[in-house]
Description:
Chain A is mainly alpha-helical. Chain A is built from 13 helices and no strands. Chain B has helices at 2-29, 37-55, 58-82, 87-106, 131-135, 140-158, 160-170, 172-177, 182-208, 220-230, 235-258, 264-285; strands spanning 120-121, 137-138. The longest helix of chain B has 28 residues, at 2-29. By secondary structure, chain B is mostly helical. In chain B, helix 2 (37-55) runs parallel beside helix 4 (87-106), helix 2 crosses helix 9 (182-208) and helix 11 packs antiparallel against helix 12 (264-285). The interface between A and B is large, with 44 and 42 residues.
Amino acid sequence: MKPHTASLPLSAGSRPSFIRWKKWGKQTLVFVSPFVLYGLFLLAYGVNPLDLYVSMVKTAFGDLYGFGEVLLKATPFVLTGLAAALPAKAGLVNVGGEGQLAIGALFAAWFAVFYLNGFPAWLGIPLMLVAGALGGAVWAGLVAVLKVKGRLNETITSVLLNYVATFTVGFFVHGLLKDPESFNWPFSPEIASSLRLPIVNGTRLHIGFVVALALAVIVWYVLAKTRLGFRIRVLGSNRLAAERAGYNRNKMYFWVLVAAGAIAGIAGMIEIAGIEGRLRATTGANFGYLGFLAAMMAWNHPLRLIVTAFLLGMISVAGNTLEIGSGLPSSSVNILMALVLFFILGSRRWTK
Amino acid sequence: MILADILTGAIRSGTSVMLASQGELVSERAGVINLGTEGSMLGGALGGFAVTVWTGNPWLGALAGGLCGLLIASIHAFLVLSCGANQLATGLTIMFFGMGLTAFFGRDFVSEQIVGFNPVAIPVLSDIPFLGPILFNHDPLTYLSILLVPLLWYLIFRTRLGVILRTAGEREEVLFASGINPKLVRYLAVLAGGFLAGIGGAQLSVAYTHAWVENMTAGRGVVAVALVIFASWKPARAMLGAYLFGAAQALQLTVQQQGYAISPFFLFMVPYLLTLLALLLVERRKSSRTPEALGKVFAGEGSG
């Protein structure tokens, strides 16, 4: 909301500087507080939080390998974040990135193992990407059909389908897609090396992050600069206006959700082709939820999402350092992530 | 025999969901959706288990579980009611917070063993053929949870307190005009909901599995929220829905014991698919009536 500056002897956009400083101060406080709180938590467990935070920044910006690790972690968060941010602009809450990623990974692995074995990289990788997108789109399509035809709230259905997706992947890696040479371990055979994503020298970073960045820019462009994007935003911010303008609401809901699912599905494909090389029951676990949080932190802005995903990537990598360095389980950084989000969610009214 | 097994199992494994959905129902009647129910349940499951390990007393465990659930729900209440945060997003964050928090504090309890609550057969009644063992051979928390349903129905639909609760969820300005602070009512409703969800979680770890497993609620909190919609915000129907979910869980165990060649993963899915189906059916009948102010934040004068 804009303040009522019209009646004041101020030109629009130039608030007095002390107000601006106050706003910046508040935003800094919102950002710093969760780290302080989590620091106290770490102190209680005998870990020096400063060590962790310093090593966090050092890992991320100290050398190319560390920077690559953070980007690697951030890549799926950008994509599943987009899967939440795009529907959010249309007024939908898609929490199904988790399941859409899983089914995308399943489709990608299935195609890679059974059909794309002998394909050269230039053809095989794009086909695998399409398969992943298709998987995510199908899964989001279920949510969309339930929303449009069954008039069911997409938040609830997408969360419930996440569990179904996890069990579906479990079914396949224990059965039809199980590696015959795995000595009964539940994972798929390894995909052909020609299907693996090219790697940046000196890191583990693959080109998947370029795909993620490109998609973020595309989604931003469509939303901000095109007529379609305008319509999506109108639908999300003023349903009545959208109805008056004669938009086909159900059709838009359907395709926005399917597009979001396709993006999350691509995240699943990238996990297979970029990092793991095979499908496991745990592939991409929690990435959907983390992406949703990244989108929330960015207020569903596709470009800001890149920054928040990077931040979550830094925190995730820090989790591994924490586990190795001090014996605290890596899951404890989830607490930090939730704290960051609590402060952001709670401060919206206050920082205005 | 198999039918009796499934029906007994329906109550046994449905009770945790039932308690959580009764709590969520109270919260939603006051106008607040709390997806953080999942987090409250997890907190309750771990807190209840931990206190039972320390004291050996499952009653203290159940109480502690309820308090943990209440504490976690208080974050939701504060962010949503005092800070005006988005209800769904806050709920999800709390779900995630609960997962992280309990994974962290729970690792010391993974291999612990407890006696906990165990089924107590009610004399005479449990001797009734067929129905006796199904209905009257459960743990104490389950009996209490069954008593809770008519009690809640009475409170919500037959007392002044219930009118206040429902008004908070329908027309908060009316409540405000009559000198009652709707925000306070909502706070209490969310906290009560968290308490019940926490006891539900404790029932799971202290009475049902007698163990703590990371993320052991596996979406039961989300199912509880879905069931409230299925139940059209009515306690008895929420109970029915929860037992249906429990029956699907029990079916899965029974089929496995009988040695049928069905992949367990399909059976794992059944409860979630059944919940979706139940939602679809109730939406078709269009009989559900949502509390009018559900999900909205009261922004009237003096509400801060």
